[in-house]
């Protein structure tokens, strides 16, 4: 499957052709799609690949390639050999036609207008070639959505603007993948525009163009038709595929079905579903094709390498570690296609088993419904291109190279079992440890996916793994846990449940498929009906005109159909009506016809017979018969046999004797009656015979029982007699064989004694049977060694693997042949062959040594001479035609350099023809010269320029005749030729550079002290004409030099201090120009020419006018001095830095702050000098400055220095507004900070004093009110109570009133005491804080809330202010708990720590959110005021529903 099938929405943009293109329609003829192809350097190879894969698809192609005007365009001749399309060079005003390729001529531009190509001359002054942009823009304007732009290999950016125009016009843009392009400039520039629909290798581009032109419009049209109409036609097509192939695609996702249907419709030129359905009826083989198209098979070895790493390191170890030795690991690869994934898993399992030394049985079940894919997978033979994802180590270990391909080794192949299996309809495998089904579920609808997942769950063992595609999931199944989310690896967590019948299909499969079971019936379309009527009319006309009659019969010879004048040959029977052909032909013909029909059915071949004589009344007819069976053609809906009748001229039978003729007629009538009577008699006789046979069978059964005993006795007797005869025969044969063996032994002994070939015969135990006398030269044998093992006998060979070779031949009966050498230097051809018995059994080996010393010596000498040469030496044999003319040369020898140059071994090229293998290697002119060498025997010596594999070579060729051929020597002189050309070019180039260079260049002769060459720039720089310089007898620069500089310049020109250590010397001096002003010159001198002794003869100088540079340096020097003075006199620390945070400025204040002198920090990174800057605020400020943001840090310490500082960090910008660095100013604000702190502390102390006065006033007032309540109102109420108790009313009403008043007085007294306690508890004043807190707890405890109180480590008494503050805070917090918290439990804890007193008040109430509740309403404002007075802190920990905790801390030191 291609990328478009897996991600159909990601390839093409929404821009589509307006109308579907239909082959043969006027729309295509007048307005076809046009593909513009732009290419430059390296484009030839890309164009070849492109057109090798381009089909005739009703599209026109225009190739625009960068060529110089003088170049010859050979592209047409090259593409004609690669493409099936017509190739044409563009002529001016040429109209375009479909299925043609148009090549732009060299030196021209091409545009398109109204489907006509126009040429224009390319302007020579244009520096950059824009041919592709020019054509693409005209293509976009003329064709719009029917414009397709293709960018191939090339340099520059031509075509980038053109593809933008095509994209904006709605067309398609395809760009070559830069990784595959020889030059990637044009593809990369086109891709950067962002308009490429596809980035592909050239060989894949035609398929996407075909999809865009034909498939995509068809898919859109079919989808729209399905939306607007019902999808009955698709259902009928799928039903026809089901009936024909047994494969049910009804539950496949419709977009996938539509894309595949559209592709086949485009290939078969059908443009609606009804026409395609008719096409399927007429071409039943297309049903098989579309079914294979539906089977989307995409797989490769280790697909998604990261996913297989998870399988390798996590899944497989987990599965195998759980299996005991001799156990079984079962893996199921569902939808295995061609088997790569199954083999990948098998390799991973094998590697783990080898690493862990574990021995278990492994079965990988690989299943698919495509039998062709399974057959391919079962062979396990793959091309090298399929192994890109396989490491070289695995290829060497698990694959065997066979005929250019790679076969899976037997060890892995045995682990994999390929089986046809329909996951939808067939039962699943069971007890599986790992199920792999990748990228198959995405093509199934959700219902079918659910059924398949149920089968996978049934197949898996508990804790088994499921491996799906990256776009697939287990759906809503709860019995899988996700192991790896990215690569969709799941683990089964539940035991498999039985599958219901709903999970199995009852439709046809390939196993129960019968081609005769045709259920598809529909009325054909008008066009198809018309076609059928035309065909029938044509058949009737041909049969009538040729005098033939056609009869179609079934396998029982019953007539199914007839055509032509069949009544002339067939008649219905007079009595029993039957449609059997043999009953409807004349009796004379029936016997022959029946025999021929049965023979045709048996042999499945056509039978033709002529001149069959048939008597009809008084005429003798001569008939011709043709019988052809159609019983195995799957394209036909029904089996039949065709019988064709034709008749030659009939002959009349003359009546010489009428009376005799009458008797003959009477006899014929009588004969007919007798035949009828005979038939009845035969039938009666048959009945009697059947009865007799029944009786006879009963008698035979009895007779057989009686005879069985007799037969057993007779057989025993016969066996004894035969055994005796066999013994006599065997004895005679043994005597004869003994004689033959003796003769054969004599022959062998004489052969061994007479031959010079060394031969040794050993058995399977390597024991010597026989040997020839000459074998003692290689093996130290004596007569008594027969029967001994050859392993125990020494030999004279410089070869140590003789025994291993013998054993290998015995185990693997394949002969071994090697060249070996003995210890005296003699070469032998050693051949080890299996010793094969007559019954084909290997019973040992034969070792043969043949002396090849002379041949080997010549061979080594010959090879040494050839391969020691650096030239390409080749020997050729002439190939002549029938006329004796040489048409080619055939290799007979190549040396090593020639093999290396041609990149082929001698074995590959021997007996191959050079013009067939390398058609461009020998130019026609050179080939003709070589023919003349053979014919005239004249030696050829010449230099040739040769193009080979895209590179130009120069060779010095020497050709000498050898027999009927020649020896050809190529001496590579490419480097010499290139050097010569480069030298000449450089001479011209250097002079042009010198004349056009703005530098001042001159060459000075040291001997004559005169300039040899002065370029015109020197004169122009000084304001003189070149003539004044060139015709001056004295060196002009010495005349114009400043008087102070003349001595230095003269000394240098007389004795230049140039050496190998200092090859370039520099000198600066002043020169007076034509205006009388002095200019600064900087001369750089080097030796231009040496004497043979190594002394310099001439020097060359390249001078520059550096007056401006000298002036600028002076200015920079002054500015630098001013900047340094400014920095060093600043009272603030200043540091500047560049974009890498390296320090560029560091003033004296910074030296004082950091203790680092300027010399140690300049050029170093701030973050390296001060690592803390990587995390602190100063470092962040520097980072922000480098991003263009200003930062000010207030009141912060600087390093380890005491005090406070303010740092301002500002970015520095260049002239273009880009950040070029930044600087920081560090200002010491310690004194200012001290003054501010004093002012703030003074203000705070004043506020505390005011607050203290307020609180003291409050406490005094509370104390007064408390005493008034206790001593005044409290005593008054108590006295009233006493008075009331003295009253003794008589009436019941008065007593009740007295009781009520008493109760009220008690409540008032209690409330008064409580209020007095809360205002100022006397216990706090008298006994201290601990007793007061305990009293509070006693008073608060009730049935509604339980209060605990704990005071730890508190001294007897504290400061009065502190005790009062703590008591009031506890009092306020308890009031809040009672009023608002709804708590049932609360606690107060006071801890006396070393430096602090800690108060904790906690409850289990409803709690609150401190950030959302206004805490001032909870009485906490007064608590904060008291804490502010005594420098305490308050922390609130509370959440809704979780109670509250108040923690208050008082610092003892501050209280002092």
UniProtKB/TrEMBL annotation:
Residues 664-733 form a coiled coil. Residues 1-10 have a biased composition (Polar residues). SMART domains: HATPase_c, MeTrc, PAC, PAS. Keywords: Chemotaxis, Coiled coil, Hydrolase, Methyltransferase, S-adenosyl-L-methionine, Transferase. GO terms for cellular component: cytoplasm. PANTHER family: CHEMOTAXIS PROTEIN METHYLTRANSFERASE, PROTEIN-GLUTAMATE O-METHYLTRANSFERASE. This is protein-glutamate O-methyltransferase. It comes from Adhaeribacter radiodurans.
């Amino acid at each position: 499957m291609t990328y478009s099938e897996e991600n159909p929405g990601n390839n093409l943009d929404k821009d589509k052709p307006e109308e579907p293109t239909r082959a043969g329609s006027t729309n295509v003829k007048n307005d076809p799609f046009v593909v513009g192809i732009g290419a430059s350097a390296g484009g030839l190879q890309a164009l070849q690949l492109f057109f090798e894969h381009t089909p005739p698809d009703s599209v026109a192609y225009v190739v625009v390639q960068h060529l110089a005007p003088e170049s010859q365009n050979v592209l047409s001749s090259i593409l004609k050999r690669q493409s099936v399309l017509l190739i044409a060079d563009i002529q001016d005003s040429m109209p375009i036609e479909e299925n043609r390729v148009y090549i732009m001529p060299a030196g021209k531009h091409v545009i398109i207008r109204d489907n006509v190509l126009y040429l224009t001359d390319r302007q020579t002054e244009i520096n950059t070639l824009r041919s592709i942009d020019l054509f693409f823009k005209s293509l976009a304007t003329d064709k719009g959505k029917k414009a397709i732009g293709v960018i191939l290999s090339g340099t520059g950016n031509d075509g980038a603007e053109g593809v933008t125009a095509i994209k904006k016009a709605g067309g398609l843009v395809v760009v070559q993948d830069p990784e595959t392009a020889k030059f990637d400039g044009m593809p990369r520039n086109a891709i950067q525009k962002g308009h490429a629909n596809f980035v592909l290798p050239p060989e894949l581009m035609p398929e996407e163009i075909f999809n865009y032109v034909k498939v995509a419009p068809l898919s859109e049209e079919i989808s729209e038709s399905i939306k607007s109409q019902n999808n009955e036609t698709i259902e009928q097509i799928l039903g026809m595929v089901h009936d024909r192939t047994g494969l049910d695609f009804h539950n496949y996702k419709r977009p996938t079905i539509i894309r595949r249907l559209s592709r086949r419709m485009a290939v078969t030129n059908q443009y609606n579903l009804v026409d395609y359905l008719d096409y399927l009826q007429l071409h039943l083989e297309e049903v098989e094709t579309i079914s294979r198209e539906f089977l989307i098979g995409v797989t490769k070895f280790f697909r998604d390498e990261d996913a297989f790493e998870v399988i390798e390191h996590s899944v497989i170890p987990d599965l195998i570690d759980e299996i005991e030795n001799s156990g079984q690991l079962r893996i199921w690869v569902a939808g295995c296609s061609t088997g790569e994934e199954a083999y990948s898993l098998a390799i991973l399992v094998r590697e783990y088993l080898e690493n862990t030394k574990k021995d278990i049985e492994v079965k990988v079940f690989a299943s698919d419904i495509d039998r062709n894919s399974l057959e391919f997978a079962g062979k396990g033979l793959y091309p090298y291109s399929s192994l890109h994802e396989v490491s070289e180590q695995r290829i060497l270990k698990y694959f065997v190279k066979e005929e250019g391909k790679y076969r899976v080794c037997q060890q892995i192949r045995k682990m994999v079992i390929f089986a046809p299996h329909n996951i939808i309809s067939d039962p699943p495998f069971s007890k599986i440890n790992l199920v792999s089904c990748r990228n198959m579920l995405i093509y199934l609808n959700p219902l079918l996916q659910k059924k398949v997942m149920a089968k996978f769950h049934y197949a898996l063992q508990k804790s088994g793994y499921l491996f799906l595609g990256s776009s697939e999931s287990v759906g809503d199944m709860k019995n899988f846990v996700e192991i790896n989310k990215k690569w969709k690896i799941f683990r089964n967590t539940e035991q498999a449940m039985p599958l219901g019948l709903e999970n199995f299909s009852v439709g046809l499969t390939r196993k129960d498929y019968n081609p005769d079971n045709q259920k598809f019936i529909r009325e054909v379309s008008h066009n198809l009906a018309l076609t059928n009527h035309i065909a029938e009319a044509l058949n009737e006309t041909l049969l009538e005109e040729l005098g033939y009659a056609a009869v179609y019969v079934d396998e029982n010879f019953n007539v199914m159909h007839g055509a032509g004048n069949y009544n002339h040959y067939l008649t219905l029977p007079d009595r029993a009506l039957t449609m059997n052909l043999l009953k409807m032909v004349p009796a004379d013909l029936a016997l022959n016809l029946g025999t021929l029909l049965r023979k045709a059915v048996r042999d499945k071949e056509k039978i033709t017979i002529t001149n069959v004589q048939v008597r009809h009344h008084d005429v003798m007819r001569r008939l011709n018969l043709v019988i052809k069976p159609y019983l195995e053609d799957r394209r036909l809906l029904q089996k039949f046999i065709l019988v064709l009748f034709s008749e030659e001229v009939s002959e009349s039978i003359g009546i010489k004797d009428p009376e005799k003729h009458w008797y003959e007629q009477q006899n014929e009538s009588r004969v007919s009656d007798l035949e009828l009577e005979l038939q009845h008699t035969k039938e009666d006789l048959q009945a009697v015979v059947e009865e007799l046979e029944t009786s006879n069978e009963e008698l035979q059964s009895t007779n057989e029982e009686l005879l069985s005993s007799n037969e057993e006795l007779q057989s025993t007797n016969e066996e004894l007699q035969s055994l005796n005869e066999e013994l006599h025969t065997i004895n005679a044969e043994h005597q004869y064989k003994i004689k033959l063996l003796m003769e054969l032994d004599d022959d062998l002994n004489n052969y061994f004694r007479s031959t010079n070939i060394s031969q040794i015969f050993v058995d399977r135990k390597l024991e010597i049977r026989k040997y020839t006398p000459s074998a003692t030269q290689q093996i130290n044998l004596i007569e008594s060694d027969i029967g001994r093992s050859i392993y125990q006998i020494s030999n004279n060979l410089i070869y140590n693997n003789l025994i291993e070779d013998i054993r290998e031949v015995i185990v693997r009966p394949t002969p071994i042949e090697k060249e070996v050498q003995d210890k005296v230097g003699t070469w032998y051809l050693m051949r080890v062959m299996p010793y094969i018995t007559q019954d084909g059994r290997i019973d040992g080996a034969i070792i043969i040594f043949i002396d090849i010393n002379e041949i080997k010596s010549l061979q080594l000498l010959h090879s040494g001479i050839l391969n020691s040469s650096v030239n390409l030496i080749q020997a050729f044999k002439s190939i002549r035609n029938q006329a004796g003319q040489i048409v080619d040369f055939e290799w007979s020898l190549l040396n090593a350099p020639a093999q290396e140059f041609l990149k082929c071994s001698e074995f590959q090229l021997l007996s191959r023809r050079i013009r067939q293998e390398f058609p461009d290697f020998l130019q026609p002119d050179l080939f003709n010269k070589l023919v003349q060498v053979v014919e005239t025997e004249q030696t050829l010596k010449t230099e040739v320029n040769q193009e080979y594999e895209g590179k130009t070579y120069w060779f010095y060729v020497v050709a000498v005749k050898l027999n009927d051929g020649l020896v050809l020597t190529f001496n590579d002189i490419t480097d010499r030729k290139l050097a010569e050309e480069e030298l000449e070019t450089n001479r011209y180039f250097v002079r042009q550079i010198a004349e056009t260079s703005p530098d001042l260049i001159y060459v000075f002769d040291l001997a004559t002290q005169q300039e040899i060459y002065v370029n015109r720039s020197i004169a122009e720089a000084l304001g003189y004409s070149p003539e004044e310089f060139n015709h001056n007898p004295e060196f002009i620069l010495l005349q114009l030099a400043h008087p102070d500089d003349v001595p230095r310049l003269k000394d240098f020109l007389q004795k230049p201090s140039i050496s190998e250590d200092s090859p370039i010397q520099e000198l600066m001096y002043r020169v007076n120009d034509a205006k009388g002003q002095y200019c600064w010159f900087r001369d750089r001198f080097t030796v231009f020419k040496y004497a043979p002794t190594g002394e310099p003869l001439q020097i060359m100088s390249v001078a520059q006018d550096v007056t401006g540079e000298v002036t600028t340096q002076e200015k920079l020097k002054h500015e630098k001095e001013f900047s340094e003075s400014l920095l060093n006199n600043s009272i603030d620390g200043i540091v500047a830095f560049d974009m890498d945070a390296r320090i560029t400025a560091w003033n004296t204040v910074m030296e004082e702050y950091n203790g680092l002198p300027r010399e140690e920090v300049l050029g170093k990174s701030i973050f390296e000098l001060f690592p803390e800057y990587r995390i602190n605020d100063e470092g962040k400020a520097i980072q922000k400055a480098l991003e263009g943001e200003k930062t000010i840090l207030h009141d912060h310490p600087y390093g380890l220095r005491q005090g406070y500082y303010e740092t301002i960090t500002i970015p520095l910008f260049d002239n273009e507004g880009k950040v070029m660095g930044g600087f920081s100013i560090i200002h010491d604000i310690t004194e200012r900070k001290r003054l501010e702190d004093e002012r703030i502390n003074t203000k705070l102390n004043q506020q505390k004093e005011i607050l203290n006065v307020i609180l003291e006033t409050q406490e005094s007032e509370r104390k007064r009110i408390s005493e008034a309540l206790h001593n005044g109102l409290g005593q008054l109420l108590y006295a009233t109570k006493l008075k009331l108790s003295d009253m003794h009313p008589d009436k019941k009403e008065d007593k009740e009133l007295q009781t009520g008043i008493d109760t009220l007085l008690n409540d008032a007294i209690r409330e008064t005491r409580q209020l007095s306690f809360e205002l100022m508890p006397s216990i706090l004043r008298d006994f201290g804080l601990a007793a007061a807190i305990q009293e509070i707890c006693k008073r608060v405890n009730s049935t509604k809330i339980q209060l605990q109180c704990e005071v730890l480590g508190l001294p007897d008494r504290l400061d009065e202010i502190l005790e009062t503050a703590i008591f009031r805070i506890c009092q306020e917090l308890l009031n809040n708990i009672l009023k608002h918290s709804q708590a049932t439990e609360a606690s107060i804890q006071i801890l006396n720590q070393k430096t602090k007193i800690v108060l904790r008040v906690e409850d289990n109430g409803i709690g609150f959110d401190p950030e959302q509740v206004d805490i001032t309403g909870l009485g906490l404002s007064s608590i904060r005021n008291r804490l502010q007075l005594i420098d305490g802190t308050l922390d609130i920990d509370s959440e809704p529903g979780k109670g509250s905790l108040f923690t208050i801390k008082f610092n003892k030191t501050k209280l002092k």
